[in-house]
Amino acid sequence: MKKIRMKGKTVDEAVAAALQVLGGEKDKAKVTVISEGKPAMLGVLGGADAEVEVALSEGLAEDARKVLQEILDKMVFMAMVEGSLEGDRVELKIKGEDMGRIIGKEGATLRCLEIIVGSILGRQYGERVRVGIDADGYKDKRNQAFERLAKEAAKEVAETKQEKVLPPMNAADRRIIHLSLQDDAGVTTYSKGEGRDRRLVIAPK
Amino acid sequence: MKELVEYIVKALVDKPDQISVKETAGESITILEIRTAPEDAGKVIGREGRIANSIRAITKAAAAKQNRKVTVEILTDDEGPGKQSA
Fold first, then answer.
1. Which of A8, A18, A195, B22 is deepest in the core (most CB within 10 A)?
2. Is the ipTM of this complex over 0.90?
3. pTM of the full predicted structure?
4. Are residues A82 and A103 in the same domain?
5. CATH code assigned at A65
6. Are the Cβ atoms of A116 and B8 closer than 8 angstroms?
7. Domains of chain B with CATH codes
8. A192 close to B (CB below 8 A)
C-alpha cells in the first residue's frame, strides 16, 4: 500500500489531491477520513481543513512483501523479502541473517508472522488473504520430508489394507499430505478430531 | 521493541490514532503495555488469542536477539478500575 495523508478545504478536495500525488484512480483507493473539516464563517473565521488518509494498492504480493519487510526491519533483523502470487495465495520468501530466530522452534515464529501479515492484509483488502512465509527454504525442506512420509505411509496402507492415523498436525502440514496423496491410486485421505487434536487418516481405497 | 509492536497493532485496528504502547525497560525484562479503543481490542487479541500470541512470539524473537526478555500486555479502556461501575 502506498499511503499518504492530505489536507484540503473539503474531504473531496483532499482525496483528489492525494490521488494526484499517488497517481491512482478513486475506485482503487481506500479512503480514511481523519477530520471532516468545517467551512469558515463569513469565509474567513474559524474554518478547519479536512484531512484524509488515502491508501492505494500496489498489488497483493507487493503489499504483503512490504508489510513483512517493515516488520523484519523493526525487529532489527538483517533480512530481505521477496513476494509472489501463487493462485490466490501470497508466497513470501525471506533471505538473510538471523534465519534461525525468524523460523523459530519447529517453524513457530514463521507461523506467527503468517498470522500477523495475513491479518494486516485481510484488513487492508476487506477479505481473507492467505499468506505463506518461508525463510531460507525451511518450509520447502520440511514439506519434502512430509511428502516422503506420506508416500511411505500410503504404500504401507495400500499393502496392509489397514487405515493409518497420523499424529496431530496443524492445517498447513495436513494440507501438504492431502495434496501429495490426492492422485494416489491405492489410498484416500481425510481428517478427524477437533482443534489441536485433529489428525489425518490414510485409508485404503 | 515499542516501534515493532506499535506498527503491527496500528495496522490491525480501525482507530490507529487511539493506540498507545507504553514501554517499561528493566534490567533484562521489557514490559510493553498496549492500549486500544474498546471496540478494537478484539482485533488485537484475535480468535482464541491467536493474534495476541503471535504478537508476543514475534516480539520475543526480536528481544532474544538483544538478549532481552519481553512481556506484552493488552489493556482495554473499559477494564480500567474507574469505569467498572457502568
1. A18
2. no
3. 0.78
4. yes
5. 3.30.300.20
6. yes
7. 2-76 (3.30.300.20)
8. no
